[in-house]
Structure formats: C-alpha cells, structure tokens
C-alpha cells in the first residue's frame, strides 16, 4: 500500500477566486462566462459559487 498525500481540489470557488484563477482583472468576465453557459455556477445566498470542475474543463478546452 502506498502512502500518498494528494492535492485536494475544491468543489467550488467564488466568482472573485475564479477571476483570479483565470487571470481576469475583474469579475465581469466570469459572470459573462456563467451567463453564456461556458462555466457552471450556483447561487448560495447572495454569492455565486463556480464549479471548480467546470472551470478546469473551460481552461483545458480553451
């Protein structure tokens, strides 16, 4: 059996975190990607949480 300590990826990130990960200067572009269906997000209270898996898929597909 191997002792393995892996990196745990988050299930979701905030819009501001997504913008930072994508290298955007502000969050407007992230909201546009959500609105146009390029990345998935869900609203939790007053904030949107962006699916990390969908963010990875978007980056890999660019």
Automatic annotation (TrEMBL):
Signal peptide: none
Residues covered by the Helix-turn-helix domain: 14-62
A GO molecular function held by the record: DNA binding
InterPro entries: HTH_17 (IPR041657), SinI_DNA-bd (IPR010093)
Key words, A-Z: DNA-binding
Protein name: DNA-binding protein
Species this chain originates from: Bifidobacterium callitrichidarum
